Here is the input.
Amino acid sequence: MKAQAGEDPNHVYPLRDIDVQYKVECRRGPHLRHLGSLGYSQVMREAYPGAVYYYQTQTFRIFRHNNYKHLIEARPEKKYTTKPTKLPTLIFPNLSEGNIIQGKRYGAMTIVECNLQIRESISGFKESRGRNEIYVPYPLEKSSGLYFDIPRFTRNYFTTGVIINHPLIELSHTRDSDFMRPIFLAKLIFDYQICQRIVPKFQLYKNKNHEIPLQLITKKMVSEYGDRDVVKRSVRSAIRTFSYFKSVRMSDKTAIIQNAPAVICPEQWKIVLKLYAGFYLKSHIIDLDTVNGDLFFFLSMDDSFHDAVREYHGKDWEYIRDHSRNLLFVK
Here is the structure.
């Protein structure tokens, strides 16, 4: 096989043949027509129960699946089209002994390469007939001549993959984008020096209309950090990122305008302060009298900030305040 294949082994052994192959057949009386051979992944896209299957420009209706014989039965059909209704793919990591390939931990982030079980499911299909579209759920009605009597058409397979876990990723599964946006923005600023260096200049050089001259910002950054081309690209990238977070907007090609600082709730402040301690200060102690206000330039440090300090005392931190101290001891 190696001698035949040379540099193109897929021409001798197609990669799709690794998967279980299903034969598609159309029987009309004594005549049997072979309509190709499909891997399971193709079956999920083209030949699921009830699908209109195209073969050499002709259309066929898939009316029966025989998983034991790996056989799919079809009959001629009009030139309709169908599209599967897919459910979210489920991923089941196997973290038992012998199934973890490697794992790393970076601060609060855990990265694990391991064996996975993947489950893909179809709950029905949408069928287009001209301008009309109908939804057909599983199980199928036998009166239609289609035979599939369970609520899901499912494919399970095993592979390896990388699982990334972080508290912010978990939180984003239960919170909307408006809640997470200022938190991710704060995390971005805490992590990247270019953000930490450029944000104070916004405060320094903005005018009474909250306009910030781009040329002046870039010039100051170049004069302080050198490497003109790299700094200019970094400044453009940082400003574009801040605009994605809706913290600034472009006035024209020469200036940006700062939007109003985001007003966030005590729960958001709790998360931001814990990120500030862990990722910027790299300490469990926050001195509230010396907080770097430049890093919170895009957030409104209003009553919610002070409410959070008091509300989460005893839960997420210990708050100590006296004549010489104003400290949070983050747990």
Remarks:
- The chain has nine helices and 17 strands.
